[in-house]
Amino acid sequence: MNIYGLTKENLENYFLSKGEKKYKATQVFEWLYAKRVKDFNLMTNLKKDLIWHLKQNFVIEQLEILEVEKGDLVRKYLFKLFDNELIEAVLMEHDYGLSLCISSEVGCNMGCRFCESGRRKKVRNLTAAEMVLQILMVEEDIQTRISSVVIMGIGEPLDNYDNVMDFIRIINDPKGIAIGARHITLSTCGLIPKIEQLAKENIQINLAISLHAPNDEIRNKIMPVNKVYNIGSLMECLKQYIAKTNRRITIEYVMLEYINDSVECAKELVQLLKGMNVYVNLIPYNETENIEFRKSSKKRIDKFFDTLKQGNINVTVRKEFGRNIDAACGQLRSKRGG
Ligand code: SAH
User: Fold this and answer.
1) Which residue, judged by its Cα, is nearest atom 13 of ligand 1?
2) Mean pLDDT of the 193-204 span
3) What distance in angstroms lies between residue 152's CA and the mean position of ligand 1's atoms?
4) What are the residue boundaries of the structural domains of the chain, listed by start?
5) Between 203 and 326, whose confidence is greater?
6) Ligand 1 centroid – CA 263 distance (Å)
7) Which 8-state DSSP code applies to residue 295?
8) Banded pLDDT at 336 (limits 50, 70, 90)
């Protein structure tokens, strides 16, 4: 197994089972994540026989960066995995620092009509190591630390719950990549049982919900998941999540021209979200050549925005990154014949 997929607790249990002290796990974490060593032999404060045991049980393997596309304030990475599958990560430069958007699955089963990634069914979960490595490889490439991570690339993270949680624990660990929980955002199309599970984890990450419609009629048309978990039950679940975690939720709303971007839709959204501790992020749609949806005009986005504001909803319009470089998630991979 690739060692980057182990949480510190996993590694502590491993050492305890070998009759060793727990703190060895911290030492290994420091080698991997503070010193970025890629060879067990270089872990010089570990005894020879311990290094031998580690080598018997684990490997230190990297991903391959196949391609980097560079645009203004954005870089898109195409990775090849151990089984030749391709995934993407997107690095964005904000005024508050660098954020990296990572993928959580190969393909995706959610089938959102407007999404390039969803055109390919899920092939498999990413391992925690493959998610950790997206960060390590990009940091090595740019020789800088990333300040925040968003799990918004290819895949539905809550459909790969256990690996994603291990990934979050590894990068959040002060001896790991040490990214604060408040700098980690998980985005989901709304898998209710998993959101309920997440509420119990006692971890202060940000939750973002891909809502994209104010009612079931529209949402059913663009997001098949709504037929399983409709808006009413999703809202109920989010209210409970907020009550339990005391955290504000982000509502993502991709602006699709003449589909969900009318003033009536905005008014309906105001009613839906009234009184909830949420903020709405309006996302200009990233058009892709394989899908017929169009992005809303600036005028329609502005009107939608103003209507939410008038309804006392916190709202921002997401900055557009990488339109010049096929940055809509899944586009780089699908160009390679997917
Ligand atoms: N499955 C998760 C995370 C991956 S998608 C989720 O649904 O949230 C990340 C976000 O990008 C979602 O809000 C998704 O709806 C949105 N998205 C997908 N394709 C897009 C496109 N072409 N332009 C803009 N946003 C898109």
Assistant:
1) 210
2) 96
3) 7
4) 3-57, 64-337
5) 203
6) 22
7) B
8) low
What atom in ligand 1 is closest to the CA of residue 156? 1
Instruction: Tell me 180's DSSP state.
Output: -
Active site residue 265: no
Residue 102 CA to chain centroid, in angstroms? 5
Give the distance (Å) from ligand 1 centre to CA of residue 82.
26
Question: Which superfamily does 64-337 belong to?
Answer: Aldolase class I (3.20.20.70)
Q: Is the pLDDT of residue 110 over 70?
A: yes
pLDDT for residue 218 is more than 60: yes
Query: What secondary structure letter does DSSP report for 40?
Result: G
How far, in Å, from the CA of 189 to the mean position of ligand 1? 8
Class of domain 3-57: mainly alpha
CB atoms within 10 A of CB 122: 18
Q: Which atom of ligand 1 is nearest to the CA of 212?
A: 15
CA distances from 180 to 156, 168, 196 (A): 22, 10, 22
Is 217 part of the annotated catalytic residue set? no
Give per-residue pLDDT as tens, 44-95: 999 999 999 999 999 999 999 999 999 889 999 999 999 999 999 999 999 8
By the 10 Å C-beta count (0-12 exposed, 13-18 middle, 19+ buried), 287 is classed as: middle
Q: Which amino acid is at 82?
A: F
Q: Which atom of ligand 1 is nearest to the CA of 108?
A: 1
Nearest CA to ligand 1 atom 3: 152
The mean pLDDT of 123-134, rounded to a whole number, is 98
Mean model confidence pLDDT for the chain: 94
Could you tell me the pLDDT band of residue 330, with boundaries at 50, 70 and 90? low
Active-site residue among 101, 112, 237, 329?
329
Structure confidence at residue 38 as a pLDDT band (50, 70, 90): very high
* Distance in Å, CA 305 to ligand 1 centroid: 19
φ/ψ of 115, rounded to 5, equals: -105, 130
Ligand 1 neighbours by CB, cut-off 6 Å: 110, 112, 114-116, 152, 156, 187-189, 210, 252, 254, 283, 285-286, 288, 328-329
Nearest-angstrom CA–CA distance, 78 and 94: 21
